[in-house]
Specification:
single chain; 156 residues; mainly alpha; Cytochrome Bc1 Complex, Chain D, domain 2; elongated
Length: 156
Amino acid sequence: MKQTATAHVDWRQRMQWCGLEAVVLGWTLLGVALATAQQSLPPIPGETVSAGQQYFVRYCSACHGVAGHGDGPTAPALRTPPADLTRMAQRRGGHFPVAEIAAYIDGRTIVPAHGSRAMPIWGERFGEMVGGGSVGEEVVRGNLLILIEYLQSIQQ
């Protein structure tokens, strides 16, 4: 009888471990499936501009206005008026300075020539949205690229 009870306990322990392994495997497969589903094909330029417009409206339009002219609903309350973002290239002789604009939007690097920092430090905010770290840095870079492509598309 003792041997039967021991065999029964071993069998139950094995079944518990199998159940635990099945749960872990299930969660792992679900995570892989969700990660795969979220990966999409690289955006084509029109889609990137459309995504950039959505980001712009969400993060920038309160100050810069929906069209980017610096006339957002909060603009009158700001000490420094927001820039007209449709004329960045025009103010620089037709050249759109991608790296400079990316650094300014990111905001984590101080650009002394721009004076005091009046706008949010989007590099920190975008990164914090996903918990920071290396994933946060990738999100920051992606968001900046999408916004910059949109800003380039609205230059006059």
